[in-house]
Specification:
- The structure holds two protein chains of two kinds.
- By secondary structure, chain A is an alpha+beta fold.
- Chain A has five helices and eight strands, in the order E-H-E-E-H-E-E-H-E-E-H-E-H.
- By secondary structure, chain B is of the alpha+beta class.
- In chain B, 41% of the residues lie in helices and 13% in strands.
- Chain B contains 26 helices and 17 strands.
- In chain B, a hairpin with a 2-residue loop joins strand 16 and strand 17.
- In chain B, helix 14 packs parallel to helix 18.
- The chains are: A alpha+beta, B alpha+beta.
- At the A-B interface, helix 1 of A face helix 7, strand 13 and strand 14 of B.
């Protein structure tokens, strides 16, 4: 059974601990500019929104790659880039509708979230549970639970 | 490791930017940020220099933990000789700018001289250059930040800038980064403006390393757990922000009101945390939109607010309808209680304007409070001020914030700060501050220790140099009686020394609601070369305190400047638990000097200096 990253922007405070954890795991240093997950600050609305690859079932990045450098990690379902095969052509960055696979100038390869082999550092680092790692079939479970609670409260009133 | 190991020296007169290795011997003796930059400043400038002359220098500085995953590790400071005080100034800010400087590979930036024309410094990792800022001169912090990002076509640049106030010489201009985080006090933005430096814009992508990443992650996780489990840092501050203090301090009888005429504010409940969260009748929304964190912070005390669009302050000003940095306690107190204004939306508007134009809301509100007292006493007239300035007038607050932000009309006089303003009108006793800097939001009559902390603060009256409120009101680390001055000299010294070390690490002083130096030490030790213990950090803090004191003494300050206004020493608090109390400074100060190892004249003895390696 696979798990998915579940993101709740309402809980995000914009602290960037997820970006720090992601970059430490992948780059060996604290470097938010190299993070695979990114927090967007919609200043005018007072909203902070974490965003990263959602690991599409039909992954356009994978389909578009001419060197077959993107494969599926059977254990986690993550779409994973092989640095040995990636030639840095960036076709995947065009194919991805969400912008969550990006080129890294330092290495000449593309980078994306690989779910940290099933133990995502971003979710572990998040202090407010804005990012959680949950049953892939039930990413809506907590939202459903909250809705069920308020529906029940209304019924009881 | 932890320190980038290099700093940038920008000579604005010559227009040059040069990289220099960081003096690592000093880094080990002063840690970083406040301590290290103060060491550089005091080595490089004459203490008697005019703060606004090209001979003064200004240092933007990070700590060794800035940019790491330690909680709150996004801080930077601006260190200079303060325009408001003429004393050592060190103003600390959060947001994301400090991390960007560190990620670009710089521990600090020293600015010297004065540019012949307005410029901004643009840094992209190793590359640093001074660029023409004539298009931004005369514009607000908000427009400057957006304009510079637009110039470079890069929304990920982080910017610290001054507003029109800093250009116009308002004595308490801030350096504002990320739209609403500020190195706020002592006029560090005024110094920046005097150098014709409008902004510093940075894009950093090099990363920050630590000595032992595995041990560092463990140590910082331990620290984060302590913060999460603590009632103040885990619940109170995230939910209510610093505004949780408003009712608490009012009930203590220590909420200075109407320029310290009173010590309790009848409208406190209308301007605190509870009021911000309350749904408004007018538009069905609350003033508070959400809480927000600075870089790396797992506390998230920041407030994001939106003003009621029907409120008089913004009805005709749609540019203020967006959400932005909301009220924190000190600002709400200064803009509200100190002026007697109990209108939350007006306070939020004035706070937005302070951020937009880069003025310190504490000094602005306190100065307006002093002007209101001058007005009520008939010393100032409507002819001079342009409008009625009675205590409690929300319209006056909003109008004066706009004028002061631009240094226009009577705002130019308010821009002098309360000391010069009250001297100008022959009533210097009405300036509520120390060493030229106005008090923050706690009354030294109702909370004895904080009075001593104000009197002895090296940057003028300040709560962040020794937050004894933690002990005297909240019982952290131990409860002391706020009305009792016994034992306060030792308490003040302990807080002052520990805080100097915390400030120098790159972390936020708010962590100390939950952490002692025993919690800091393992994090610093895992990040920095060398062996770091709580004892060593405390010694560094004391060294920094004495270094700052030496600078002030050399600048011309004496024991006579470690004083409080007569109002706090002679006019007893009128109401509440502190009724009848004055501050017992004369009892506490000699003991404080003795504990510090200073002479009766407030000068560190040779023995003290040699003990601290000064």
């Amino acid at each position: 059974m696979h798990k998915s990253l579940s993101i709740d922007p309402g809980k995000c405070t914009g602290c960037l601990q997820c970006e720090l954890a992601c970059s430490l795991d992948n780059e060996g240093m604290f470097n938010p500019s190299k993070s695979r997950i990114k927090i967007f600050n919609f200043e005018d609305k007072g909203r902070f929104v974490p965003y990263t690859c959602t690991q599409c079932a039909e992954a356009w990045c994978l389909e578009a790659c001419p060197t077959h450098a993107i494969t599926i990690d059977r254990a986690t379902g993550a779409k994973v880039v092989s640095d040995a095969l990636c030639v840095g052509c960036k076709v995947c960055t065009i194919a991805c509708p969400f912008g969550t696979i990006n080129f890294n100038q330092d290495t000449g390869k593309v980078v994306k979230c690989d779910l940290c082999e099933g133990d995502p550092e971003c979710a572990k680092a998040c202090p407010t549970e804005a990012i959680t790692y949950v049953d892939a079939d039930w990413t809506g479970l907590e939202k459903m639970r909250a809705s069920a609670g308020s529906a029940d409260a209304a019924a009881q009133a | 490791m932890a320190w980038a190991g290099k700093m940038l020296r920008v000579n604005l007169t010559e227009g040059t930017c040069k990289s220099e290795p960081l003096n690592m011997e000093w880094a080990h003796a002063y840690l970083g940020q406040r301590g290290l930059a103060t060491k550089y400043l005091t080595e490089e400038i004459d203490p008697k220099v005019d703060p606004l002359s090209p001979e003064n220098k200004m240092i933007m500085t990070t700590g060794p933990l800035t940019g790491t995953c330690a909680s709150t590790a996004g801080r930077y400071s601006v260190v200079t000789k303060g325009a408001l005080t003429g004393a050592i100034a060190c103003s600390n800010s959060g947001g994301y700018f400090g991390n960007e400087m560190k990620n670009a590979g710089w521990d600090q930036i020293i600015f010297e001289g004065k540019s012949p024309k307005p410029v901004y410094l643009y840094i992209e990792n190793d590359k640093a250059e001074l660029l023409d800022a004539s298009a931004h001169w005369g514009t607000s912090v908000w427009d400057t930040e957006e304009g510079i990002k637009h110039n470079h076509g890069d929304p990920q640049i982080r910017v610290a800038s001054i507003g029109v106030s800093g250009e116009q010489g308002v004595k308490y201009a801030c350096v504002v980064n990320d739209m609403h985080r500020a190195a706020g006090r002592s006029g560090v933005g005024t110094v920046m403006g005097s150098k014709n430096l409008k902004a510093v814009a940075i894009r950093g992508t090099l990363g920050v390393s630590v000595k032992d990443p595995k041990r560092f992650v463990q140590a910082t996780n331990d620290g984060k757990k302590v913060l999460a489990d603590n009632a103040v840092t885990g619940q109170g501050l995230p939910a209510m922000g610093t505004q949780v203090l408003m009712n608490v301090i009012n009930e203590t009888g220590a909420l200075p009101t109407r320029n310290h005429r009173d010590n309790q504010f009848e409208s406190a409940n209308d301007i605190g945390a509870e009021a911000m969260a309350k749904v408004r009748e007018t538009d069905g929304k609350a003033n508070l939109i959400t809480n927000a964190a600075c870089f790396g912070c797992t506390i998230a005390c920041g407030r994001i607010s939106q003003i009621d669009r029907t409120h008089f302050s913004v009805a005709e000003r749609p540019q203020y309808h967006k959400a932005s940095g909301g009220l924190e306690y000190e600002a709400a107190w200064a803009l509200g209680a100190a002026t007697g204004v109990g209108d939350l939306e007006a306070l939020t508007f004035a706070n937005f304007v302070c951020n937009e134009q880069g003025i310190d809301p504490i000094t602005f509100g306190a100065t307006l409070g002093a002007a209101m007292e001058l007005f009520e006493d008939g010393v100032l007239t409507e002819e001079q001020t342009g409008m009625s300035l009675k205590f409690g007038d929300a319209k006056a607050l909003c109008e004066m914030a706009l004028l002061t932000g631009k240094g226009e009309g009577f705002g130019a006089e308010l821009g002098l700060g309360s000391k010069l303003l009250t001297e100008k009108y022959g009533r210097p006793e009405l300036s509520m501050g120390v060493k030229g800097q106005e008090f923050p939001a706690y009354d030294g009559r109702g909370i004895q220790g904080i009075g001593l902390a104000y009197a002895t603060s090296n940057r003028g009256a300040c709560h962040l140099r020794g937050y004894t409120i933690a002990s005297e009101v909240f019982g952290i680390p131990v409860k002391t009686d706020p009305l009792d001055s016994d034992g306060k000299p030792a308490l003040v010294k302990a807080f002052q020394d520990a805080t100097a070390a915390v400030d120098s690490s790159g972390l936020c002083v708010f962590t100390t609601f939950a952490w002692t130096l025993e919690d800091f030490a393992p994090q610093i030790d895992a990040a920095c070369e060398g062996d770091w213990t709580a004892e060593r950090l405390l010694e560094i803090g004391e060294r920094i305190w004495n270094l700052e004191r030496n600078f002030n003494n050399a600048a011309g300050f004496t024991a006579a400047d470690d004083n409080l206004p007569e109002r706090l020493l002679k006019d007893a608090a009128k109401t509440g638990p502190s009724e009848g109390k004055v501050n017992e400074l004369s009892k506490m100060l000699p003991e404080y000097y003795e504990l510090r190892g200073w002479s009766h004249a407030g000068v560190p003895t040779n023995e003290t200096l040699s003990r601290l390696g000064l």
